[in-house]
Amino acid sequence: MALAVAGVLAVFLIYTALGGNQTPLLQPSNLAAHSGTVSLTGKVVGPVAGNAKSDAGLRFSLHNIRGASPLVPVVYRGSVPDLFEVGRDVNLTGHLEGGAFVANQMTTKCPSKYTAAPNDAA
Amino acid sequence: MADLGRAALVVSLGLALYAACAGTAAALGRSRRLADSARNALIASFGSTAVAAVVLALALVRHDFSFAYVAAHTSRDLSTVYALSAFWGGQEGSLLLWLLVLTGYGALVVLLNRRLLRDLIVWVVPIVGAISAFFAFVLVAVASPFRTQVPALDGAGLTPSLQNPYMVAHPPMLYLGYVGLTIPFAFAAAALLSGKTDERWIVATRRWTLSAWMFLGFGQILGAHWAYVEVGWGGYYAWDPVENAALMPWLAATAFLHSVMIQERKGMLRVWNMVLVALAFELSVFGDFLTRSGVINSIHSFAQSSIGSWFLGFVVLTALFSLVLILWRLPLLRARTKLESPLSREATFLYNNLLLVALCLTVLWGVLFPILSDLFLNQPRTIGRPYYDFFLRIFGLPLLLLMGIGPLIAWRRASARGLLKTLRWPIFAALAAGAALVAAGAGSSRPGLIAYSFSAFVLATIVVELVRGTRATGSLLQLVARNRRRYGGYIVHAAVVLLAIGIAGSSAYGTTREQKLLPGQSMTVAGHTVTYRSLERERTGLADETRAVLDLSGDVHGTIRSGVNHYFAGDSSREVGIHTDWLRAEDTYVIFDQQDGRAVFFKVLVKPLVNLIWLAGFVFLAGSLVALWPDAREQRRLVTRLALARG
Amino acid sequence: MTALVIGALIAAVAVVLVSLPFLLGSDDDLGVPTAEEERRLALIEERDRALAALKELEFDHRTGKIDDADYRALVGPLRRAAAEALQALDAGAAKE
Question: Residue A100 is part of which domain span?
Fold first, then answer.
């Protein structure tokens, strides 16, 4: 029994080590130099302009939730979750392109309460 | 009043500690008076915890904003029902709920087992007492629900999206499940401590395990439905860490429920069962830790809090305790018999266990990956949905198949010939279903097709079992009544099949389209035509509600209203519109994405067979209840056995 | 004021409940089965297990899950096991 379980565990390790399924979890402070699709978490900083459904996208900036960090400009195209607003913590999936973070998935989290509320925009 | 709550919790802590210490002394010294005293302390701790709970409940209902907790989670305009449900809406209150359920279970267990199993109960009391003491300690010293403040004029209120019936039902149900897994763990530990490692502890805890498992399972389906209709992204499960926190112990408990049947009959897998029950318990507390500590990014998490370290310590401590106990008693746990053949019911249970535990570990690995990758690679990474989907298929589909083979294969040693003969009809049904489905176009998704065919196989085996059994006993009702465990189990299997079909249908064969529509325009998704008619606006006491009215035509007909609520409190939330065609168990799901002048961006999803998932929830409940139903004969047998042994 | 009264009440009830077994002065025997009773209990459970297995085999045979050939192969060892368990139980009882 134990051997079989160990075997199964080995399978995961190999799969996740080799499989390309991992997505780095980043913050604005360590985003630079990461190419490829990443998951970026931060606090929304205004001004918020544009339209997420247009080609130009919804534009805003992102700051580290805690601590100092540079402001990362974000261009978002897709569904905007319910709780999105300046000051909220959001999680974006996308990549760096020409100095801005281009994202197409966004989830929000209610700042300090226990909640099941955010919309998964995918 | 807050003082009373605080005092009641201190009394609970004291009683729990006494139960733990005196109980241990009683077990070691074999003193009945001390054991009864410890037992009474455990029961009394439920009483004092209940008092604390009533204090909090009253404060919530009365909008007593001198309670910091009440001010943080309710507001004056909140109805009584939701004010009460805010009890478990925050960290401290939900901890109190946990303690209440734990001491409640503890009291019930010792009261119902007063005469039987004295040698086990004498150890169960200190174990439950110790675990209760931990939670009571956290409530008294770390996260008190009774912190007071200068009474605010009004509270912060409950997030509008939490003000729905699911908030009332889902958390308590999950807690009844999570906390319920403590009881079999306590009995297992008691068996190891007392040296009575035979099957008695398993028989004693069977119903407790089954009911905890039932609550945990149904609670998860409730949660999935809540996500589906309220959170509104079109899905029902996101492999979110807190969702997984409930799934993992449930999978471990499912494995345990199956493998104990082997131990009861053959005396095999004793070490494995000990490990499984400890795993289920650890995962339930670990799941609690995940939810509370905020250590993993999740849409569910409570705020970051120091409570995480306490919980982590508790998980590590109890894991070490279990490990030491099992290793110490390893000689006593040696199996009496061995597995005779890889083609037997024992073997299928073994394979089923391996697959379930593998699935459980898959989820655990996915949950822990961000933490582990941060520790070892200095860069946190998440694993995406494809990972979970892949392993769900790899482990889940064979599990589905085994569900059909298991009940029909013989114990000890089955001949391949005999097995094929019994499985004739189900195999034929699966092949026929597969062919029909391919003809109907289901070949577009291979995993979906396999899932459907396997489901047909399992359903056919259940039908075959029922038909054969009814023919032998004469009445279906009698058959089920006399073999509650077996046929209750079959009903649960049927529920799992419905779940599999529902999941396969809505994911593998679902369709999604996004389009911007002006009033009068329509879009077609998988044979359904959705036409945007008009926009309605309504003002309620809580929000400005905007609803787009859409007509549904084509394969199904109806009207759908989908829109947004803008709450005066500040937030807004999408309210999805769902049209259910009961005959096809199919949903047309419309999300109001964004308004653009007169036009609206809509996202339409067609989800075939999704309603089978919710139906599965009820069938699951029914099957579990049948299996749980008390059997007077069985109870009498247990009592007579003991009397006979006494001579 | 009520808070104080209720609080004192809870504490009092707790103390009473906890000391009750000592005040009632019942005997201190935990009442767990002795080694001899344990042995008998184990034998009884062994017997019940063997009989249950037989019953299940009969049921499976009656409902057609196990055909005659398999039944004949399996019933022998089970019947032997049941007989042995019954014998062991009687032997144990005879010793008393």
Answer: 23-109
Whether residue A2 has pLDDT greater than 80: no
Q: Residue A61 falls within a domain, yes or no?
A: yes
DSSP B183: H
ipTM of the prediction: 0.88
> Could you tell me the residue ranges of all domains in chain C?
29-95
With a cut of 50, which residues of chain B have pLDDT below it? 299-303
- Chain A residues whose CB is inside 8 A of the B227 CB are 116
Angle, vertex CA B276, rays to CA B201 and CA B220, nearest 5: 105
Q: Residue B228 gets which letter from DSSP?
A: I
Query: How far is C-alpha B521 from the geometric centre of its chain's CA atoms?
Result: 43
Give the number of other CB atoms < 10 A from CB of residue B229: 16
Query: What Rg do the C-alpha atoms of chain B give, in angstroms?
Result: 27
Of C18, C56, C63, the CB nearest to B469: C63
Burial of B201 (0-12, 13-18, 19+ CB in 10 A): buried
Report CB contact under 8 Å: C41, B641. yes
User: Nearest Cβ partner of A23 from B235, B362, B384?
Assistant: B384
Query: CA–CA distance from B271 to each of B41, B118, B429, B467, B521 (Å)?
Result: 32, 23, 39, 37, 65
**C77-90: per-residue pLDDT in tens?**
888 888 888 888 88
Instruction: Give the type of residue at B445.
Output: S
Three-state DSSP state, B346: helix
Radius of gyration of chain C (CA): 26
- pLDDT digits 0-9 by tens, A5-36: 677 767 776 776 666 567 888 888 888 878 88
What pLDDT, on the 0 to 100 scale, is given for residue B283? 95
Reduced to 3 states, what is the DSSP secondary structure of residue B116?
Answer: coil
Rounded (5°) CA angle B389-B395-B396: 75
pLDDT of residue A117: 31
- This prediction's pTM: 0.92
The residue written with tokens 């005293």 in the block is B37
- Partner-chain contact B380 A107, CB within 8 Å: no
DSSP B136: H
CA dihedral for C25, C26, C27, C29, sign (positive or negative): negative
Which amino acid type is present at position B166?
A: Y
User: Into how many domains does chain A fold?
Assistant: 1
Residue B38: predicted pLDDT = 95
pLDDT in tens, A88-119: 889 899 999 888 999 999 988 754 443 333 33
- Cβ–Cβ under 8 Å, residues B32 and C30: yes
- Put simply, the answer to whether B411 touches C30 (Cβ < 8 Å) is no
pLDDT exceeding 90 applies to what percent of chain C?
7
Structure tokens of A34? 């990461």
